[in-house]
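Predicting holo structure, adenosine-5'-diphosphate bound.
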Amino acid sequence: MSTPVKMNVLSGFRDSHVGRLLRENFRAQMPLYIIAIIAMVMVAATTSLTAWIMKDIVDSMTNPDDRMRVFLVAGAVALIFFLKGVASYVQTVALTRAGNRIVAVQQRRLYAKLLRQGAAFYNTNESSSLLMRLTQSAQSARAIIDILVTGFVRDMLTLVGLVAVMIYQQPTLSVVSLLVGPLALLGVRLILRKVRAIMEQELASLAEIFKVVQETSAGIMVVKAFSLEEKMAGRMNAAVGQVEKRANAIARLEAVTSPLMDTLSGFAIAGVVALSAVSLFGESPTSAGQLMSFVTALLMAYEPAKRLSRMRVSIEASMVGVKMMYDLLDAPETLTEAEMPVDLPAGPGRVEFSAVRFAYARNKPALRDISIVCEAGKTTALVGPSGGGKSTILNLVLRLYDPQTGTVAIDGVDLKTVSFATLRERISFVGQGTFLFSASIIDNIRLSRPDATEEQVVEAARAANAHEFIKELPQGYQTQVGENGAFLSGGQKQRLAIARAILKDSPILLLDEATSALDATSEGLVQEALHRLTRGRTTIVIAHRLSTVLEADRICVVNEGRVVEQGTTEELLAKGGMFRRLYDQQFRAVG
Ligand code: ADP
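Done. Tokens:
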């Protein structure tokens, strides 16, 4: 029953993913696999011995006068089964350990890759899909290697051993029974094709489940406020239903191979029994023991043969996950560090855009032609209608994206050539939404400077007007911030962000002022903290408040990806252009 199975499975190696999976993982876990393989050889050998010794069992039992032989056979049987048990145990443990290691290694690789990706990558990849890939596809990698190793070593060797026993005991009958195997494979081939398609759909539904849960958690306010529970439950039900349906479909396909093989084996065994009568009476010297040994080997060969014939189906089912894993690992990195990055020299922090043009993937350009100079130690305010490109300017200073043409430079050094570490060290960013990690308040502030002492953190918090409210929290600085600080107000989160930036003490500061109005007290505290923060730093601020605009050293009006006006407040007010109009409508009203 073996040859066509082997060819069928081998064709899997043409699939480059399988080859690569083995190259990358098998070698790394070699010691564990060697142990597992040795154990598997033992399992295969003891299994074949079990069939082989049937002859002696039967013959010694039908001839009980030879006591010595009976005892020998009994002892051998006990030993064989004991060894088989030990070998099975060692094989399972070694294989599982190697598998767990592979999952861990792949998950670390995947996450490291995600961290290397630029911001553009996250615009097009949903977090729930990334989550699914990280958890599922590493498991698939492990599953495939398990299937291959057990298939090729344990099942294949067991089958070879058992077939050898069959041929040794009953050559003619063996030939007959081995002819039946290939028939079974025709059916398996048909099943294969369907499995891959269904598996792809199943993973898509799985991703949807992750997505629904994540959106429910992140958007719980909206879900509750707009009574979207039923809608969300509907989406979840649909996704869960799909996964269930597809899992059933795959199970059905996998299950159908068993009865197929069962029926064929039944025919084979029946044929053998019938033929054995003929040969028993025809040619004489076949002992009952030989026949028993042969039938036992035939019956035992059925299990490994079945697993081998289903090997491709099982591999196919896991292949989709592995493909997703490699897609992610091989995805081009959207933004990479220069090959020989230079350290950004410690300069005053002058930021310059020269003829910068930039578009987010496949969108119309967000910046059409930007040339601005943000003088060191001065505050440059970016104003203009929403969608004009102000945030994009900050993104380029952070080098979250690269301009398509033109350059962004700090102290005369093109950011494309600079090492990420020195660039990010030189810049602080305080945005509208402050992201807090699930850690204590103190650790959240310390993110910007991990080696800061507690005194330095407290000092920064004081300067940020955050110390007072932190003190009032149940565990003070040690209070754990839940998922993104749900119990903190907007103004409090902003002050934590300011404390981070004060602690970091970098020469360049990027600021995106909050648009939503805070209450007067809170607003006053934030403003005061910002004052302390911006003093003496190169500040680029997206301004929404009149006070910020009035205090800025220079104002750039950004509209449709261009700087349409720039100068001091007085100059621009006098000019009576776009700034004047914005000033009259927007800032006056807010001010
Ligand atoms: P502003 O900060 O002035 O409101 P932005 O810089 O946010 O303007 O946006 C400029 C343009 O770029 C807008 O047309 C916006 O739709 C687009 N844009 C902003 N962020 C992204 C993004 N991550 N992916 C694609 N397009 C974006």
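Confidence is low (pLDDT under 50) at residues 1-14.
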